[in-house]
Every structure is written in structure tokens, then in C-alpha cells.
Write a structure and sequence with these properties.
The chain is built from nine helices and eleven strands. The protein is of the alpha/beta class and 246 residues long. The strands form two sheets. A six-stranded mixed sheet has the order 3-8-7-4-5-6. Helix 7 links the parallel strand 9 and strand 10. Helix 1 packs parallel to helix 9 and helix 7 runs parallel beside helix 8.
Length: 246
């Protein structure tokens, strides 16, 4: 069956995106909608975790959400982040975002390449620090496992959580392809539509954990990325549409 409509379970890109090029070239309609969203924890919940921001000399940031919620809660809890604080950022993008809250050139900031494992090499060189890891309730198990191997003092603080979005307005809307990027997106689909039946709807997923979540939920995965031939989801969709829309 030909593809005419696609729903991507993420917010619409703010700038130029390969999805816009895909829509124009393949003449398909692409909509964007967040199936999940982030909600920040309140100060009381952080105190219940027995987290005292002043006890830490270094912070590990893995995402923009972690940065936003750390500084939001620091302000709510009347904690003035000291100039001596050391920041360990998983990627350049995360480090760049940190400039929203600190004067970059006056702070000690250490930047990883991209994967969290790359950042651990830098953390290991600063074993005398006491590290705080601001994170969500969906923290990958590999992150604390890696930190434990470094023999450092560290604690995690759940400062925000991933929540299922309300999609009730899509109840009677049909798309040829649904695109997912996380197990949480699959969870959101079935929490919003418990009686969802795939039928002719094609399911596109990114990443092995998302593939597993889709299959465990009884879905048929029609499009999967990344692969050697299609390293991005937009490329995987383009390849599939070219084949079926002949």
C-alpha cells in the first residue's frame, strides 16, 4: 500500500529538517506530535530523595532537560551554585546549552565526545570530586553501571520524569506510518489507545530497545533504523516510500 501520511512521535523541528525535504520530494504529509513529555519534580520530592545540592563539587549533565531542571530547582531551593562547580557534559550540544545558565569561559567545563562512555574517561581523572547526576526517572541502567566502575563518589537525583501525553484528539485520525523513537512512545500509544489494532498501519522504529518494545507490544515492525544503509529515520522512511510508492 502506498504511503500518503506519516505521524512522527516527536515535536516538530524548529529549523530545517530532512523530514521537510522528505515530505516535499515524496509528496507525503508528515505531522509531528509528542507522545511523551517531561515534567519537572518539585523541591519537596528532591528533598525526599535526601539530595543536598551543596554536598557536591561536580555535576554530570547528559541532556538539556537535566540542565534546565537542576538550575530551576537550585533556585527554588535557594541554593546558589558556586563558581567553583565543575561541569561534565556528555556532548558539545549539552555543554553549549549550559551557557544559558553560566558564564562559559569562567567555569570548569569538561566535554565528552557523544556517548556517555566517552565522558567517563574525563570523570575518572577527577576522582576526588563528589559527583551529582541529575536525571529522569527513565535513566538507562548502563549509566550508573559505568559510574560504579570508576570508584568515585556519586549520587543520582531524579529531577524530572517522562510522562505520557494526552492524544485523545487523535482517536479517529488514521496515518499510514507511525514513527517511534523510544519504548516510552510505544507505551504512550497503548495507554492512549488500549484497543489499538495495527492492521495496515506501518510501524517505524529507531533503536534496538524501541524495536523490542514494539514487538513485545505485539506490533509488526515494518521500518527499522539505524542500519548501515539507512543510518537515520528520515533515510529509512525515504527508502521505504520509494519502494512502496512506485
Amino acid at each position: 500500500m502506498k504511503v500518503k501520511t506519516i505521524l512522527v512521535s516527536q515535536p516538530a523541528p524548529a529549523k530545517q529538517s530532512p523530514y521537510f525535504d522528505l515530505s516535499a520530494k515524496q509528496k507525503v504529509k508528515i505531522d509531528f506530535r509528542s507522545f511523551i513529555h517531561v515534567e519537572g519534580e518539585v523541591a519537596r520530592e528532591v528533598r525526599n530523595q535526601k539530595i543536598n545540592f551543596s554536598a557536591f563539587s561536580a555535576i554530570i549533565f547528559t541532556s538539556r532537560n537535566a540542565i534546565d531542571n537542576y538550575f530551576r530547582l537550585a533556585e527554588e531551593m535557594r541554593f546558589k551554585v558556586p563558581d567553583s562547580m565543575k561541569y561534565f557534559c556528555q556532548s558539545e550540544a549539552v555543554a553549549y546549552y549550559l551557557q544559558k545558565y553560566v558564564v562559559y569561559r569562567k567555569r570548569k567545563i569538561y566535554v565528552g565526545e557523544k556517548a556517555f562512555q566517552d565522558l567517563t574517561k574525563l570523570i575518572k581523572k577527577h576522582k576526588t570530586e563528589i559527583f551529582l547526576l541529575p536525571c529522569s526517572d527513565k535513566l538507562k541502567s548502563s549509566v550508573p553501571e559505568l559510574l560504579d566502575t570508576l570508584e568515585i563518589k556519586w549520587e543520582k537525583a531524579v529531577l524530572f520524569k517522562t510522562v505520557v501525553s494526552d492524544l485523545s484528539d487523535l482517536k479517529n485520525v488514521y496515518y499510514d506510518i507511525l514513527v517511534f523513537f523510544s519504548p516510552s512512545g510505544i507505551q504512550s500509544l497503548f495507554e492512549n489507545f488500549p484497543d489499538f489494532e495495527q492492521n495496515d498501519t506501518r510501524i517505524a522504529v529507531f533503536g534496538n530497545t524501541t524495536v523490542k518494545a514494539a514487538e513485545d507490544a505485539g506490533l509488526r515492525v515494518d521500518i527499522a533504523a539505524p542500519t548501515k544503509e539507512t543510518p537515520s529515520m528520515s533515510m529509512a522512511l525515504s527508502h521505504y516510500i520509494k519502494t512502496v510508492n512506485k
